[in-house]
Task: inverse folding
DNA sequence: GTGCGTGCAAAGTCTTTGCAAACCG
DNA sequence: CGGTTTGCAAAGACTTTGCACGCAC
């Protein structure tokens, strides 16, 4: 979908909940649309926009991300690196995506797999819990780190 | 399994990696064994042991939990409440368990479902990623909060 | 115009670290 | 006895907040 169309949708969603579509909010959302990296921390966003917008403070970035999360425009993620990360919440995605986190180098790769529908029913029945969303994270080793691990293990065994 | 047997196993695992089984480490592990609550933050552990062991500092609790995590004696969890939580890593559990996090009241319920084996193969093949572990979190509403939500929605609609 | 939103700096919360003393093995 | 581990306090990292000013609607 075209970026400008997405922005219009986001604007609408902000307005219809009676929040103001300020320049700052637009710029922050634009950063997500423009960034090659999908998983941005508050500091990342701040760095991305700061050169062209030195007047936007870090606190505003935090407050905007918090707002966007509550409006479900973005999703708050935790990859265990001590800071929150955010990604645009693509409601149109038929299959939700998840994250493979490399324990060696920290690289995060996305992975599609949708099993919510089946599980929603199962969990609802068994636990009296109405599932709204879920997060699935895999921890492992990417091919590069896996290779390094093997080399490392061989060295240890050779001692 | 008996608590004392578990403790012996934990002791062994610490010793065989050439770490010392100090009184502090034992007391912290014991807190997990004794606590009814499975998901403890560093502060929780500190509070649990502080009355009987006022000499154990919070920094030691943090350092121990970090060590235990690296030794895979405990698992580090994030429920989005701004602090890390830890639970004993039960390697004997045939089926791993996951967490249902109530968006209304924050209650966390455990839920068993094992699908790692199938997915491990699939992910390995498709993404060149060797999966070691995974975390699955569901967000939703427990029966109490769901009921409150419904009441709330009715009120809003009645306006 | 009015009230929500922002910038700045200060404060808050959780976690880590430096160092001398204590302790495990 | 020697290298780990600990306690304490201080520092660090990320995030939130108070307040006066500014801007969207």
Result:
């Amino acid at each position: 979908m075209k970026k400008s169309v997405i922005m219009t949708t986001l604007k609408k969603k902000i307005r219809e909940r009676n929040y103001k579509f300020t320049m700052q909010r637009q710029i922050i959302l634009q950063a997500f649309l423009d960034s090659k990296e999908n998983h941005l921390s508050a500091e990342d966003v701040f760095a991305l926009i700061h050169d062209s917008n030195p007047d936007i403070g870090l606190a505003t970035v935090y407050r905007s991300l918090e707002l966007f999360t509550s409006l479900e425009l973005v999703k708050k993620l935790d990859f265990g690196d001590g800071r929150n990360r955010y990604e645009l919440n693509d409601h149109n995605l038929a299959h939700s995506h998840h994250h493979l986190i490399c324990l060696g180098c920290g690289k995060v790769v996305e992975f599609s797999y949708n099993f919510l529908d089946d599980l929603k029913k199962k969990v609802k029945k068994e636990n009296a819990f109405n599932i709204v969303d879920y997060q699935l994270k895999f921890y492992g080793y990417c091919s590069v780190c896996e290779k390094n691990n093997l080399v490392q293990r061989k060295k240890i065994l050779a001692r």
